[in-house]
Every structure is written in C-alpha cells, then in structure tokens.
ABC transporter ATP-binding protein
Amino acid sequence: MSTLLQVDAIECRYDQLVITRDISFSLNQGDICCLLGPSGCGKTTLLRTIAGFDPVYSGSISLNGSIISSPDTLIEPEERRIGMVFQDYALFPHLTIRENIAFGLRKLSKQEKGERVTEMLDLVNMRDLIDRYPHELSGGQQQRVALARALAPRPQMILLDEPFSNLDSELRKHLGLEVRRILKSQNISGVLVTHDQTEAFAMADYVGVLNQGRMQQWDTPYNLYHEPANQFVANFVGQGYLIPGQLQDHNKVSTEVGIIEGNRAYPWADGTDVDVLLRPDDIIENPSGSITAIVDQYTFAGSATHYRLRLPSGLIVESMFNSHAEYDIGDPVRIEVKADHLILFNNNVKDNPVSV
Ligand SMILES: Nc1ncnc2c1ncn2[C@@H]1O[C@H](COP(=O)(O)OP(=O)(O)OP(=O)(O)O)[C@@H](O)[C@H]1O
C-alpha cells in the first residue's frame, strides 16, 4: 500500500502563537484516520493546514510524495484535490441538490456532469431528492449531500471537520458507519476531526490523540485502548481511572484494592511508585470480594448499569454491573479486581511531556 499523506514534524502558528508542535503521521491510500482530542487542542488547525487554508511554520506536508505545504511552499487548496465536509453542511441554499453537487465540476461536459451527479447521489442513497433545495432536507440528508458534493470531483482524500456534531446520537452512529462504508468502497482516504471517541473508534483505522497541540499517540483504536502511551491517553480514551500502587516482583502491583497481577514483566525496581489503570471491565461485583466500595452514582444503561464507586481511600473507579444488580447511592458493594492485562505508568518517568 502506498503512502498518500505524510505529515512531517509540522508546527502551526497563528501570528506568533504556537498552536501545534512537532506533529507527524502518515496515511496510506484508502485508510481513514481521526484526530481526537479535547476542545482547543488544535484539531481544526491541523485539518485547515492539510487543506491548505493555513500555512505551516515548520515541517512539511506531502501528498503522493509531492510537498504541498512547507515554510516556503503553499499549494492552493483547490489544487490539492482534497474534498472538505464541514460541521454546518455549507450547502448553497439557493441551489438544488443537483446544482450543489455539480458546482465543483466545471471542467466536465454537461453530460458528464449529469452522470457524475447521479453516481454520487446513488452512492449516498439520495437520488430521489435530486431536485430539492437544502432547506427541504433533514440535517442527516444535508450532510449526505455535502459528502456527495465533496466526493464528486474525485478527490484523493477527504477532510471531515466534526461532520456529525449537529445530528442526534443515533443518526451520528448510523451516518458515521455509512460514511466509512462509502469512503472504503471508493478507496478514498479520510481525515476526520472529532472529540467523540466512540465516533473515532467506529470510523477510523488510525486515531491520533492530541493534547495541547502535541500528538500523544498515533495508533489503532485497539492499541489506544489497550496500550495507551501515557496517562493522558489512558484517561481520555475509554473510561478509566488511575489508582496508585507499588510494583512487586516486576509483574504485580500492590494497591488499595489488593495485589493485582499482570501478564508481563515491567522493567522497574521493586517498590517503584506506579499508577494502575482500571477500566470498568476490570472491576466486578463479587459478594465475597475483599473490598467494599460505596456507590457514588449510577446510570441505568439497559442490559447493564454503570456504577461510579468510591474506594475506602476516597478514590473513584467505575464498573458495569448486570442491570439486575440494584444498588442505590450510598450502598456498600463488594468488589473484586480482575485485570488480566495490566496497564501501569511509572510515576518517576514523565511520559511524553505535553507543554507547548
Ligand atoms: N484564527 C485564529 N487566530 C488565533 N488563534 C486561533 C485561531 N483559530 C484557532 N485559534 C486557537 O488555536 C487553538 C486551537 O484551535 P482549534 O480550533 O484548532 O482547536 P480544536 O481542537 O479544533 O477545538 P474544538 O474541538 O473546540 O473545535 C485554540 O486555542 C484557538 O483559540
């Protein structure tokens, strides 16, 4: 598989203010990635820079091996063959759906344009609505049209900036998977910006987690969850809590919830202070468990109930119990920790410092 997009150590600034620093990642043709991170971490800035709306201060961006952005190169957005889909759909209100999609196809003949428009509308399952105006469509339908319009000029890649954030949660889920199917069927790469982790996991082959303008980890969704590179990623991706402990015999940690044994040896000395990541699925209800936690909060979620539990030290952990377990706030619950895959952070080592 060939590399389509190569982002190499880029720094982005607004005036003299550094927004993102030393960002590198690459994307193969047909792969979909997602930039995930809290508000203000620089996701949109990166997307705008890839699109060519903003320059890079240092580093470079290449598409198919050619530099499109560097401190002394800035290929115009319209020459990059990159499509964009925005949060607010950005359709032309006075043009029909047909005209909206045909808008960027000026170089095609009338017949070619007509064929391309229907091909794109078939792709997004919207052919019946070809003569409507944007205000006659639902939000989800408008976003499908926006996707069809972005795909119509046959871009090499598509950038999606929080495309589903104006839609309700069911529709978001559905449309996210639909967009993934469409991009995969056309072998078009996509870069999606979101702060919704579920969306990122469902849509992307690779996810880049950003914080304060720095890439914290670029990895598959599976690895982000199971092998977070640092405490920030561990906290931000998936529900999880860090509790302190001390390493024993390279693979065990002594904590207030007992000795937890992992499935690998850690290279640190006995007694090293560590943080242990506990995800909800690591903590199970066990009437004969040795730890008593107190229910701090709970949310009924159908087949399971999500409990927030206070440990004797006051630290919080979370767990999913079968919804037949009915505990009220303040009730004691006996629990046991069953973490077969131990994620530890050495408190004496600063992983990937995140100051800009
Ligand atoms: N035109 C601008 N001039 C100066 N600073 C800007 C400009 N645009 C964005 N910023 C700043 O750059 C930082 C990153 O903004 P950006 O929009 O890239 O973040 P984001 O991760 O996309 O956030 P959100 O999820 O809230 O959209 C923020 O601190 C923001 O205030």
Q: What stands out?
A: The chain has two domains: 3-232, 241-346. The first strand starts at residue 3 and ends at 14. The domain at 3-232 is CATH 3.40.50.300 (Rossmann fold).
